[in-house]
Amino acid sequence: MLFPPLGTPHARMAALFPHPAAWALLAAAFLAVLALMALSGFSIRVQRADVQVLGCLLLMAIVAWRAYSQGLLRSSILLQFLLLLSLMAYMGGMLSYTLMSLRFPPMDQALARLDALMGFDWIAHVRFVNAHPGLAKALGFAYNSINYFILGIPLWLLATGRIARLRGYFLLSILTGLLTITLGGMLPALGGYGHYQPAAEMTGNLPPQAGRYFLAHVSALMNGQMSSVALGEMKGIICIPSFHTILALIFIWSFRNTRLFWPAFAFNITIIVSTISMGGHYLTDLMAGSALFLAVLWSLEKFGWLDESADAQSWAQKSGLSAPLAKAPA
């Protein structure tokens, strides 16, 4: 099995979090992105601030390895989590910009038609949210809170000893992220705000940049007017599938069989709804994101890579972790 249960003799290797194969996949993705950039002519500019950030990441990698080699596995896992999150963000941005610079046909007309076939009126939805300022604020808060969940849920899983679930969290995030970025880069779209161009009076109660913060970059890429971007200036430019939707579903999955499941379920459903008015997504984007999440989840479960039946206490004893980390509350 590629991802052995935590209670096996390979437990100490499992502390190379989330798994050596996952790091290998990320490294391969970086090499593939660099090759694609060389072929496409798109380039990434590295500024002084970017060098400082990259230096911090290198230092973090060194400290994480030292912590692992000295048996400080709790600290090593935490640092690897932060490092992996940062590297995924950089690699994802590089891949999405490079793919979109290849100028694949825009998908807005097709996505709008699919919404219409499902009976969904994007303009009516945004008008309704705008007409209820309290709802607009709640959806805006939910949409922006996703960054806190990305950081908070792994820390909570680590603190409560749910190591196998924490591994599953990252496997789901890595695979869905790579697929989302690849598909989204090849299916470029401006989103609802760029496509419908709603009048100002329809969006007065919404954040000024709601669904628009990426439009300048996407338009320039689709028109062939952008051949490079600064590393620190990359934005989330993917329309379909909706990665906000995928992450919200991963968050819900992370809370299953805990006392926090139903509050987390309700809040993350709100995040998914918010992606239309706050992120400019089509309803079709949400459906595509949900389908992608379910497909990856099914694949990982089929191969046993999300198995949580291993004895966490046994794994902790073999890998030098303290008992409080191994013991997960019901």
What does this structure look like?
With 330 residues, this protein is an all-alpha fold. The chain has one domain. 66% of the residues lie in helices and 2% in strands. The protein is built from 16 helices and two strands. The protein has a two-stranded parallel ribbon. Helix 4 (73-100) runs antiparallel to helix 8 (146-159), helix 9 (163-186) packs antiparallel against helix 12 (243-254) and helix 12 (243-254) crosses helix 14. It is globular. The two termini are 28 Å apart. Residues 1-13 and 311-330 have low confidence and may be disordered.
Strand-helix topology:
Blueprint: H1 11-14, H2 20-40, E1 43-45, H3 48-69, H4 73-100, H5 108-117, H6 122-130, H7 133-144, H8 146-159, H9 163-186, H10 191-196, H11 215-222, E2 228-230, H12 243-254, H13 261-277, H14 283-302, H15 312-319, H16 323-326
Parallel strand pairs: 1-2
Helix pairs in contact: 2-4, 3-4, 4-8, 4-9, 7-13, 8-12, 9-12, 9-14, 12-13, 12-14
